[in-house]
């Protein structure tokens, strides 16, 4: 999904990342002198919400990846996920926030080893991760997009277009977009992989590939550098495989069993969705109405 540098790195959204993060959870105990990490979770709905209210501070596990979450040049916590989480936690009676930056693949293990109280990283929700993390409902829905040469001379707008035209496609290591492309007829052994969108743009300009596939939000962030004027992004879209939309969404992760905190968090999140406040908070980070979602964690945990 894994961790990206700048606007990308290895994508925390990929399906492989979910499995890797889950597998790593069992190894955390060895590093801390314990044989294993107990991921069975709290009982009776948990007591973390009450504890956080007493302390007045919530520790947020983040993996630096704009526009989702990062520490800016001034050392300040920024990004869409922290902005939304801060608003919700304030309404739950918790007014202080302590960011704990880690590599993306360490987010789940760090949660279980009590390094922080919640994952605030726009993490994709999928079946593998749901076995180890109690997720809020998603606050955004991911869209794919393509980076192409200026003017999109090959008129590429879908994975089917890539397959039909036998265009040279690039993507990131472990990106879910590779699976979407293969599901539409692109031969996997023809797809070139790169470390991030910046490397993808360089490959486009050099003529080594015709298109680079990834998530729209990270591409928007990468294009902000202005360093690759010969490259543009296509309109964001929901990919399809065999005619079925492949919808993905990201949310906030709690330790298993902490349902009181998750449910309280969800209640405030739903209010923000209905009032339009969520979109207003997310817009400065590049999120638009098309990234808002009605998906639920229950739906995504089945994927």
UniProtKB/TrEMBL annotation:
CDD domains reported for this sequence: PBP2_Ehub_like
An example Gene Ontology molecular-function term: ectoine binding
One example of a Gene Ontology biological process annotation: ectoine transmembrane transport
Domain Solute-binding protein family 3/N-terminal, chain residue ranges per copy: 57-289
Domain of life: Bacteria
A Pfam family hit: SBP_bac_3
Signal peptide: 1-30
Phosphoprotein in keyword set: no
Keywords for the protein's UniProt record, in alphabetical order: Signal
Keyword Acetylation: no
Protein name: Ectoine/hydroxyectoine ABC transporter substrate-binding protein EhuB
Originating species: Streptomyces nigrescens
